[in-house]
Every structure is written in C-alpha cells, then in structure tokens.
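Input record (Table S2, row 245):
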Amino acid sequence: MAAEPAAAFEETGGGDRRPRHIAIIMDGNGRWATERGWPRLVGHRRGAERVKQIVRACPDLGVDWLTVYAFSTENWKRSTEEVLGLMKIFRRYIQYEAESMSAEGVRMRFIGGRDRLDPKLQSLMSSIEMRTAKNSRLNLTVAINYGGRDELARAAQRLAGKVMRGEVSEAGEDDLEACLDTAGHPDPDLVIRTSGETRTSNFLPWQAAYAEYEFTPTLWPDFTPDHLKAILDRYGLRERRFGGV
Ligand code: IPE
Ligand code: IPE
Ligand code: MG
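Output record (IPE complex):
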C-alpha cells in the first residue's frame, strides 16, 4: 500500500518526479485588485509581472514546457475597457520581454484563434515566435483567444480538408492531434488553477485528458515560485496510472 501522502511529503520534502509540462489557469487578477479597491486592470498588470517570475523559475524546477491561459474565447464578454487593457498588456509583455526571453533561451509560442486579434498584436506574436524558434531551455506557450471547443472545431475543419484532398484516409486520434494549435507539443502533466475556482473553463480539454489537477486558493498576483515548488513536490507523490494498474 502506498504511504499516506501527507506523511510521505513530510519525510521526503516532496517527490522526485517532476512534471515535464505544466499548464496554468491564471485566475483571480480581478478579485485581487477589487479586494484592494483598485481597478481590475491593476490586477492584470500584477498578474503579468507574476508570469515573468514564474517563467524564470521553471527551468530550475525541471519544467521544460509551460502553457499559460491568458485570455479565453469567453473573455470577450468583459467590458471594452478591460478587453482593450488586456490586449495592451499582451502587446507590452511581448515587446518588452522579447530581449530577455531570447537571452534566457525561452521559446515562445501562442495558441488560440488569431483572426480576431488586433493585426499589430498578431504581427508581434509571429515575430517573437520566429525570433525565439531556436531556443529550447523553456517552451512557453501563451493561450490568447483560446477556447478548447474553438480549437477542436478549427482542427476538425482542417482535418476535413485533408480528408477531402485525400491526404488522410481513415482519420484517427493522431490525425486530429496534428491539426490542433498544440500539434507537436507534449500533453500537460499537471494543470494548476489559482483563485479557488475548481473548473477548467474550456482550457486544453483534449490535451489535458490525462493530466493531474491542482486547485489552489491563492489569487494569481500572489502566486510565487515557492507556491509552484510546493505544488510540484506534491505532484511527485502522485501515482499516475493512465488506465493501467
Ligand atoms: C484571470 O483573472 C485573467 C483573465 C481571465 C484574463 P480574472 O480577471 O478572471 O480575475 P477574477 O476571476 O475576476 O478574480
Ligand atoms: C479562465 O478564467 C480564463 C483565463 C484565466 C484566461 P475566467 O475567469 O475567464 O473563467 P471563469 O469565467 O471563472 O470560468
Ligand atoms: Mg476569473
């Protein structure tokens, strides 16, 4: 029988196994700001600072892939002010982080539908993807205008095109996977959601089918590399079975 997890954690200080790919639903920016009587966008700006810190911490924690949920297909429902403010934060993040990400060996990619985004943002996204394409210390994927159902619908359309052109005959899982925005990326081992909500909000439904989940009450602007380290230690104690025994 396996040791009782909390006791084992005390004894060993955490498991040795590290997740190769973690995905984070960075939630709670709005509440963080509201609690302080500040506009929600202040919380989003703090949240973006946290992303930088967590990105820098990942390689030393043995994480090779980090995928973060920055803006969902449902987030367009928010006020114009909040949406435009978020888009400005994304533009600035890419512009000002480009140098340091290149220098630190971070490869940056984006998932989600791009057509609805401002053309200026789209071109910044493509240029940083190209600029960091040879980096391999950390694979950072940012989900902007991402929705799992939207991604699957777009993938199904691409796959139908391949079938019609005769490039694929009997479409299977691998064929659909090759049409996703994440084609070629490993599946996340662990999905973390901050802010206490215990839902997945349309994030990586295909890719995270066998992921482990961690839900923490900490709001994203308060989430530090130490919080991440504690979660990764707990992950090392989990038994993943993938349907086996
Ligand atoms: C997450 O924080 C960031 C985005 C969804 C863009 P929220 O803005 O959802 O923060 P809460 O959930 O309202 O506190
Ligand atoms: C999920 O958070 C999306 C992002 C973190 C970008 P939301 O705050 O939009 O999700 P719900 O509305 O609580 O499900
Ligand atoms: Mg939220």
